[in-house]
Amino acid sequence: MKKIKINRGKVVRICNWLSLPLQFLGVCLLYLVMEAICRHSLYEAVSYMVGSKLVFLYNAFLIFVTTTLVYLTRRRIFARILIMSIWLVLGIINGVVLACRVTPFTGPDLKLVTETIRILNKYLSVGMVIVVIILFLLLIAGLVWLAIKAPKYQGKMYYRLNIPLVIAAAASFLLVTNVALKERVLSSYFGNIAFAYEDYGFPYCLGTTFFNTGIDCPNGYGEDLMQEIVLSTQTGEETKIPEEPVNVIFLQLESFFDPKQVEFLNLSEDPIPNFRRLMEEYTSGYFRVPSVGAGTANTEFETITGMSLHYFGPGEYPYKSILKEKTCESVPYVLKGLGYSTHAIHNNEANFYSRKSVFANLGFQTFTSEEYMPDISDTTPTDWVKDHILTDEIVKCLDATEGADYIYTISVQGHGDYPTEPVLEDPQITVTGAENREKNNYSWEYYVNQLKEMDDFIQELVDTLAEYDEPVVLVMYGDHLPTMGLEAEDLKNRYLFQTQYVIWDNMGLEKKDVNLAAYQIAAEVLDRIGIHDGTVLSYHQARRGTKNYQVDLEALQYDILYGKQYVYQGQEPFMKTDLQLGVVPITFTGIDEVSEGTYYINGENFTASSKLEINEEVVEDTIYLSSTLLMVRDVKLEDGDTLAVAQQSNSPTHRVLSRTKTITYDAPITEPGEEPAGTEQPSVTAQPSVTAAQ
């Protein structure tokens, strides 16, 4: 047999000549792997590649453009592997994030390096963290080895050709992007960021959420324009607070909407009879929301601030971007200025959507998350705390102050993902009609039964507030449609960005049905009770439905958040609040040794998240006995130890949210051979009260 001789030099020359097409093919393969990781399925990735060819090629081209930088260096092999490794790591991060939460890895996550690093602790077990660290170190070692050992390009470097090549690739990408947007191959607005990643690909969506954030400076922006807008909001109506001011309560219901709107569903009974009756008796209507299937925090942002998400970057969460940096005019700030106390309540962990830090920039004075609730043991089969516990928390806020209260309550019971297996032993409501019984009907069945319980909670809350001896307005609405993959044609109203609302009151307000956007509802409610303060709120009250309403709203939002704040005479009028976690303070009054190594911790308002802290070290095995008593075992306290009770986050990070003031342990003095007194209480150096952990 004649031996085939391969001319290595000739092969290298051919590869160099075909470098660009070979590089693009390699990028296509890399991108397919990335999408398989992000979608947790090679089959889904291939289906996406075949079914959305143009989108797939666009994203591959995006990655390819970044790899053209290799033609500016002789270390082309190293540069290629480095750039592709970065893209692969980003894809892996997104895959991990999507395995643990609904929203994907976005630009703001990438910008916040420290937050990105915390992904390891938040989403991976200790063992997996170790594996990730080892793999990362191996990757770094491999790259270092390649940087040293990988062969260099030996040909002549034609910079006069290569630099224009890189520039031409970038320019071509911009041109292709504009064409793709014009032809609707891509979209510049993400109603549901998770769906957008599936439809338009990870690289495009990540890049869009990274670069396209905030609000663009409007045409004609300046002091004259802003003064003109402010003047247009002056209707002559002044706020007149009555002798008995009205308590204002907002209740945002997770994924709450009328399932009878779904064309194909057959329900054995109506899951929301109470809400439906309230809509018939009180002010109600359709409620336009900025997202579908997810995006609770964005509906929340609109209802609290009166600002529209439409003008922000696609898929942007202001809670993750601008509101982490600065304060913003809001209903809490406006009402606080009128003597109201402002509270937020959420039966989920405090750091979800960064609420612990953001709420201080929105003017809330207290925030009660699940870590500060006495009993969160009643959960759904998917481990979300049920909503009925919110009734007591709302009443706590009302009773905590002498004056009027603004209470913003965020429900969680209706949260997805919804099981595709039967998890309810004896569901009160059964569902048929979905095409795929095993998947869709079981998911819908779970969902509508959660709706039924949420509807029962609504009635319980209304009955409780009806007996309250102060005037109350209660605003209830769904934050978005459930994550069920609904299409517009599946709904009777043919619109996905819409739920329903009702404004209940115990004062006899006139029923006035009107369809509202989320950013309009606060202005409508406050107008009904005679409050006309706040720049944004007054704008909606005066300008809704008028000429240039949306255009001027965009300019107003830009000026307040990103501009020179001409509407405030160039001065920031809002100071970050000293947010108290928990509407009732947690106090630590003393500690008793009941036997060797076993102690009772005494205080008030403890919860299951309360932990003893010794010299700033949390005792993880702290046992919750009651709201006034905790217990620790196998602990040795020394004279002079500093003690506190810390509230530990229920998130996987287990970070300390707040802690009481410390007390100094004063060990009981015992004579030699004498057993220590089991009930003697040590001295307390200061009266403790809860403070936010820094």
Can you tell me about this structure?
The structure is a single chain. The chain has 694 residues and is of the alpha/beta class. The chain folds into 3 domains: 8-211, no CATH class; 223-568, Alkaline Phosphatase, subunit A, CATH 3.40.720.10; 585-692, Immunoglobulin-like (Sandwich). Helix content is 40%, strand content 14%. The strands form 4 sheets. The protein has a 9-stranded mixed β-sheet with strand order 10-3-9-8-1-6-4-5-11, with helices on both faces. Helix 2 crosses helix 3 and helix 2 (19-39) crosses helix 4. The longest helix has 30 residues, at 437-466. The N and C termini lie far apart (77 Å). 41% of the residues are buried. Residues 677-694 have low confidence and may be disordered.
Overall mean pLDDT stands at 88
- Sheet with the most strands? 9 strands, mixed
Shape: globular
Q: Could you tell me how far the N terminus lies from the C terminus, measured between alpha carbons in angstroms?
A: 77 Å
The CATH architecture of the largest domain would be 3-Layer(aba) Sandwich
Spatial strand arrangement across the major sheet: 10-3-9-8-1-6-4-5-11
Structural category: alpha/beta
CATH topology heading of the largest domain = Alkaline Phosphatase, subunit A
Count of alpha/pi helices = 21
CATH class of the largest domain: Alpha Beta
The rounded Rg comes to 29 Å
How many domains make up the coordinates? 3
Uncertain residue segments: 677-694
State the total count of DSSP E strands: 21
